[in-house]
């Protein structure tokens, strides 16, 4: 049975979806964008936006009962693939070997015209 995960410590859902869903031994997050828990947009560099996205992911995963060390798959959506190295520099500070599987794609547009969105699949503790 699936169970919604919600926390006030991450950006609120801005549509009809859950911040994450627990299902079996896994939690699947919705894509997190660089909004603060109060809903304000972090609109500076790709590095700053990626930091906020990862902070949101950490909070959602903690609410689900897991953490970044249990992430097995990430999907990164970038508005501009030229910002890959800036995103990746922050990303690698938060994940350790063995690294999760990852897909990174450039998209035409992201919600609120942000630069980065990341979703993850993690095993529960």
From TrEMBL:
InterPro entries: RidA, RidA_CS, RutC-like_sf, YjgF/YER057c/UK114
Domain of life: Bacteria
PROSITE patterns xref list: UPF0076
Matching SUPFAM superfamilies: YjgF-like
A Pfam family recorded for this sequence: Ribonuc_L-PSP
The family this protein is said to belong to: Belongs to the RutC family.
PANTHER family associated with the record: 2-IMINOBUTANOATE/2-IMINOPROPANOATE DEAMINASE RIDA (PTHR11803), 2-IMINOBUTANOATE_2-IMINOPROPANOATE DEAMINASE (PTHR11803:SF39)
Name recorded for this polypeptide: 2-iminobutanoate/2-iminopropanoate deaminase
